[in-house]
Amino acid sequence: MTARKIIIDTDPGQDDAVALLLALASPDELDILGITCVAGNVPLELTQKNARMICEVAGRTDVPVHAGCEAPLSRPLVTAEHVHGKTGLDGPELWEPKLQLTEGHAVDFIIHSLRRHAPGSVTLCPLGPLTNIASAIQKAPDIVKRIKEIVLMGGAYFEVGNVTPAAEFNIYVDPEAAKVVFTSGVPLVVMPLDVTHKALATRPRVEAIRALDSRAGHFTADMLDFFERFDVAKYGSQGGPLHDPCVIAYLLQPELFTGRNVNVEIETQSELTLGMTVADWWGVTDREPNAMFMGDVDADGFFALITERLARL
Ligand code: BDR
Ligand code: CA
After folding, report:
1. Does 243 qualify as catalytic in the annotation?
2. Is the pLDDT assigned to residue 20 strictly greater than 80?
């Protein structure tokens, strides 16, 4: 089996970090061409530094890390320190990574990678606001036909919003970018809150990861200890939702997820519902489906996969 070529676009974030570790631990299935960073959970200066730290935890300093957009396409940046802490990776003890950024803007890296590889061979995996991806599409529309698929974390339907009553964070931060992506015609697989709020890092699941007794195991468990506080307090749930790892788990074991191929439109005008993903789950319009919108996950299978892969690091 040849490994699937992917670019991970991310704003780490503890859950982004687990997604990156899961991917970095799976070289047989995933050929990570690069990690591109975007402003989101925290400003770019921190997300790119966090991504480099995570590569070091995984022992994968061979993967290039590029810094990208500092702010959404046409709005000021909204961040989420109240969820992720001041660093974005609060929990474990952090350090100044030795791994340096690779030269070149993330948007140019995405464009060049898609042009360099065979059409239909590169999958994009956005785990944060869609600014880098939309910028690449706007700057080089020829890449649209070359993208195999975009598998992203963002949006919500039945769960509605986590940053406003109507919107999920990644889409809310840059709704104009989301609109570019959702109207691009590229095949989309979407992991909304409807799925990720079922992927809870409960106490026994976190302790199973800590019991790996490795650097990656302790780092992950320490991150998740911090990460659960917000959601447990807000929703009374049993642990923090591992949003972004759903994207990577889908690439490794798609059978863990079920969903529907539906039309999804992005609200960019209304102040009240800005960033809402209006999903035609019940097929009540004749709008063309543009996304495989996931609705469910086998959470035990998902955590078994994460734990098994972290054990390889
Ligand atoms: C998304 O927003 C961020 O806080 C997480 O990293 C995830 O990508 C969940 O709404
Ligand atoms: Ca994220």
Report:
1. yes
2. yes
